[in-house]
Amino acid sequence: MNGSDDITETVEQTYPGGTAPESERAREIGLDEDEDLHGDPDDPEPRRPITEAGVANWRVAKCLLKLREQVNALAPGRDRASDGTIGDRSHQSRASDHNPWVMDAGTGVVTAMDVTHNPGSGCDAAVLAKAICDAADSRVKYIIWNRRIANSSPVGGAPAWGWRPYTGKNGHTHHIHISVKPDKSRYDSAAEWTLPASLGSAGV
Asked: What is the pLDDT of residues 33-49, one digit of tens each?
């Protein structure tokens, strides 16, 4: 979000397709070196891309907004340069949870979010990754951080929540990617996330 407070995080807010606020754009979507779009290469059921026409309105999954709210409270001074949710229109023909492919009453739901790695200002993505894995939160589909991926289900020869190498072109060293499951009871859950009292570096 680039440190801006201009965007309300009210979960009912939607945006016309193609006019996503700059603060919501997944920063590295669209760059040649990030053609993988944060996907799980070993997912046995990869999610479809959204239609060529896109969607008229979209919003972010409520559970991800809750996570961002908690992260911001724990690290209010963190850098948000690599934060993002919505992928750009030029990549809507590809499978990515940054696309609002989950439909809820005519509104597309983005089920992925990136959170900037900024340990100097209290948001160490390694700490956040460990907290999510340790909690085994049932809302999570997978997370990507620092050239590794952990899925909440056994996949790619790894057990549930087990780390395996991430083979996408983007190593995810500047941010952590969190994808959540497409079930409304999960992606719109308002339950608190299990996070430590500090997201600062803990030597993990």
From this structure: 444 445 544 454 545 54
